[in-house]
Amino acid sequence: MPSSATRDSFADQARKISPPSDAFIGGRFVPAVSGQRFSCLSPRDGALLAEVAECGPEDVDRAVRAAREAFEAGPWPRLSPQGRRKVLLRFARLIDENSHELALLESLDMGKPVMDALHVDVPLTVRCFEFYAEAVDKLYDEVAPTGHDVVATITREPLGVVGAVVPWNFPLMLAAWKIAPALAAGNCVVLKPAEQSPLTALRIAELADEAGFPPGVLNVVPGFGPTAGAALGRHPEVDLIAFTGSGPVGRLFLRYAAESNLKQVALELGGKSPQLVFPDADLDQAAQAVAGGVMFNQGEVCAAGSRLLVHESIREEFVAKVVDAAKAWTVGDPLDPATRVGALVEEKHLQRVLGHVEAAHADGARLLLGGNRARVSSGGWYLEPTVFDEVRPDARLAQEEVFGPVLAVLGFRTTEEAVALANGTRFGLAAAVWTQHLTTAHQVSRALKAGSVWVNNFNDSDITTPFGGYKESGNGRDRSLHALDKYTQLKTTWIQL
Ligand code: NAD
User: Which backbone phi and psi does 467 adopt, to 5 degrees?
Assistant: First the structure.
């Protein structure tokens, strides 16, 4: 996209895009066996984007069987690591070459600003495939120091068929976090994208074919959770479910596994991440990061800094700065390059978020900013950036994930109280500490029960670092070399010399 791109030029390009809308199974695009399709609407204006194949259990079964056959008899798991590296790098290059189209599709499909899709989602997806492509031919197996004249080798082997089930907030990037390490390790994958945002997954299936993945290595089954998702979770030929999504659905996948073949289940779930601001922090820098930490991607971020915990001595001054910073997060058309907050993913979700706003009022919190639907005449689903102060620690807004641009402010007087509040939810995905004091930074970050802790920054992220949750935010880790652990199993072979 040229740097002079305008809303009109984006809208013009958007009209010309026609992504695949069938399922991708065994290397071919095919309609659902039932012939059913579901309407994929744009949160931007409610317009119909595509009628997408609605996969059910029969389609999922075909996809899993294609993946199983590709794993047991096809070339992919038998290819040398260098061979897999080449195909994955080609795939990364094709995604990069089509980044404009993919960014537009992502924006239209789930409502995020197109500029974020272009500068965040797609480049991070490319980097993820490059990282695992480059990693896979640099991993060594082990020889155990048994001290016997029987040698024990410890080798990593792919698991087999991986079911990847992902949400709609970063559809492409979160799919990449699962399928890149899974494929690099030699597995075959069935990807079920969220029903709200299936289009980029289907488009990259087309690119995967062009990159040269053998048929059946990557399959994509669009459809609804309780039908297609559950069928994948219950399928006896799936070895691992790599899931990102909500806690209640994570629990279902554990149940599906228990009731079927005891497949492994890796869960990346929700959060209620706190930002702890101490009086000696750089308040201007912290205020920008606190506002951005909950407004970015319309607040539809698992690690969103949705709770501000601020020392009482600076509360009034700091909260005023946060409100000012939040006002700069302008709500607008996702295709307008100036927009910072786009549309929420669907009307049902907007109503859910508005329900949290109502509950905050009922719980006695004080509204400082926003709280209303925006851009109603567009036909899309927008909410103003919203800030509530005086939120009680036990209130819904302090305890439950909102997944929208809504900040809850709570005060603290001592470091111990700050840590207790920070750890006082069932989640443990991420947290941030703002202080110039090295000892406070060190002690507090050690005391926080969270998979990622940022000190004097928020949301820094790189494919080289693991990401995942403590407590009910999940288990296992995406990203980094550690992610390969969940897509491989260890074999010990005792060899008599
Ligand atoms: P969701 O749990 O409703 O859906 C996620 C996926 O599960 C979708 O593909 C959906 O179709 C499928 N699904 C839904 N119901 C199902 C069922 N009964 N059986 C099988 N599959 C089913 O989550 P969502 O609303 O799409 O996404 C938002 C959630 O994702 C938030 O809780 C957010 O925090 C979480 N999330 C976590 C991370 C992380 O890395 N920890 C990243 C992004 C999002």
Answer: -140, 130
Residue type, 248: P
Report the SS3 class of residue 60: helix
For ligand 1, the distance from its centroid to the CA atom of residue 490, given in whole angstroms, is 29
> Using 50, 70 and 90 to split pLDDT, how confident is the model at 4?
low
Query: How far apart, in Å, are the Cα atoms of 130 and each of 85, 127, 176?
Result: 9, 5, 11
The answer to whether the CB of 166 falls within 8 A of the CB of 152 is no
CA 245 to ligand 1 center in whole angstroms: 2
* Residue 400 neighbours by CB distance under 10 Å: 17
210 is catalytic: no
**pLDDT tens across 311-354, in order?**
999 999 999 999 999 999 999 999 999 999 999 999 999 999 99
Question: Which domains does the chain carry?
Answer: 3-269 (3.40.605.10), 274-462 (3.40.309.10)
Give the global pTM. Answer: 0.97
pLDDT tens digit string along 194-234?
Answer: 999 999 999 999 999 999 999 999 999 999 999 999 999 99
Single-letter residue type at 123: P
Q: What pLDDT, in 10s, does the model give residues 118-163?
A: 999 999 999 999 999 999 999 999 999 998 889 999 999 999 999 9
In whole angstroms, give the CA distance from residue 223 to residue 21: 11
The pair of three-digit structure tokens given for residue 259, joined into one six-digit string: 């009731």
Assign 3-state DSSP to the chain and report helix, strand, coil percentages, each to 5.
Answer: 45, 20, 35
Q: Is 302 a catalytic residue?
A: yes
Name which residue sits closest to atom 23 of ligand 1, judged by CA: 245
Predicted local confidence at residue 148, as pLDDT: 80
How many CB atoms within 10 Å of residue 145? 7
Strands 488-496 and 150-158: what pairing?
antiparallel
